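Quiz preparation item.
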């Protein structure tokens, strides 16, 4: 019996739950929100696709009743406000820190062995907050950002290459922020061929820049931040953990010397399995990439500094 709780039945949480259920990733999914009736309504709507999509997962929607989340193997935290056009993710810290802290406390009362996937923004800082306040071992706290950013990177590369996105590989590490992401263009490939052999520098620079502001671009177009790819990326991380897939996916992890940094959560390639983050994979960076990583880490550390006054 596998059980996943998704906290926050808004755009990202409901999409994540829908992808989990539509793909029969878990035996049971619980969707929970503070807003009366929202999780129940989204659950009813999703489960009315069961006979259309051959869904066998059981799904429950509840308003703030954590007893229903009892014994979850994985919990995805999406509760909190999203940004509006013109805002940065970092501006959300004041409201979201309190929400993420109280949700984590409630979740762990009923699922003390759960692996937590943090989605709420500013994600690296919210993941760090969970580390600082929950007492959980570092392998059980995963920040979801790099899975999404890498998928966007592959999308923009596929458009530039006029190729199938499934035939493109690439990774984004560093912070999950408009200026802190690091698309690793040097390691990106199309069917094993380095993209630098197929696209000129100006095109590759534009792909990297579009990736970094991918979330801001969609926020401008939609009036609130994106949800289809964020929900699907969160579900992919859940599946990697629940099914012990041993996939390497960039996630925000507590670093203790890896990539030259300490005491922050930041996007690094993580081997994901049933124990959560089973290993941080060491990808060799050149001097320019190392410098970008150090700058990214400094920016994430700076945002973490605002945590104390936000709680
Ligand atoms: N890490 C990532 O890659 C991404 C992160 N995000 C972040 O995810 C968060 C959610 O985004 P959306 O789903 O678009 O927002 P939304 O506004 O559609 O949904 C958020 C939900 O959280 C609920 N909520 C608020 N406080 C709560 C509490 N204490 N307990 C339970 N539920 C509570 C609200 O009622 C609302 O339904 C935002 O902080 C956003 O910035 C969004 C996309 C990608
Ligand atoms: O852009 C935002 O604020 C939401 C998010 O993290 C993303 O879509 O990457």
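Solution:
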């Amino acid at each position: 019996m596998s059980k996943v709780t998704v906290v926050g039945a808004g755009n990202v949480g409901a999409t994540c739950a829908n992808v989990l259920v539509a793909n029969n990733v878990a035996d049971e999914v619980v969707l929970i929100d503070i807003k009366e009736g929202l999780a129940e309504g989204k659950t009813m709507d999703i489960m009315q696709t069961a006979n259309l999509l051959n869904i066998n997962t059981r799904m429950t929607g509840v308003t703030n009743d954590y007893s229903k989340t009892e014994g979850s193997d994985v919990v995805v935290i999406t509760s909190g406000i999203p940004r509006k056009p013109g805002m940065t993710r970092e501006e959300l810290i004041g409201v979201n820190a309190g929400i993420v802290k109280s949700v984590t406390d409630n979740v762990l009362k009923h699922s003390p062995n759960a692996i937590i996937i943090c989605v709420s923004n500013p994600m690296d800082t919210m993941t760090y907050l969970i580390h600082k306040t929950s007492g959980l071992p570092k392998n059980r706290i995963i920040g979801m950002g790099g899975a999404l950013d890498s998928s966007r990177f592959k999308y923009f590369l596929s458009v530039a290459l006029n190729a199938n996105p499934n035939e493109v590989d690439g990774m984004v590490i560093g912070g999950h922020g408009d200026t802190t992401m690091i698309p690793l263009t040097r390691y990106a490939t199309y069917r094993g061929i380095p993209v630098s052999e197929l696209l000129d520098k100006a095109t590759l620079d534009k792909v990297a820049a579009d990736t970094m502001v991918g979330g801001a671009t969609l926020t401008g177009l939609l009036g609130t931040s994106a949800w289809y790819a964020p929900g699907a990326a969160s579900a992919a991380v859940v599946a990697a953990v629940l099914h012990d897939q041993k996939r390497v996916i960039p996630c925000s992890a507590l670093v203790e010397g890896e990539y030259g940094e300490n005491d922050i959560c930041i996007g690094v390639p993580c081997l994901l399995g049933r124990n959560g983050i089973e290993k941080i994979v060491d990808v060799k960076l050149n001097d320019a990439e190392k410098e970008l990583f150090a700058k990214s880490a400094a920016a994430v550390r700076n945002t973490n500094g605002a945590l104390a006054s936000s709680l």
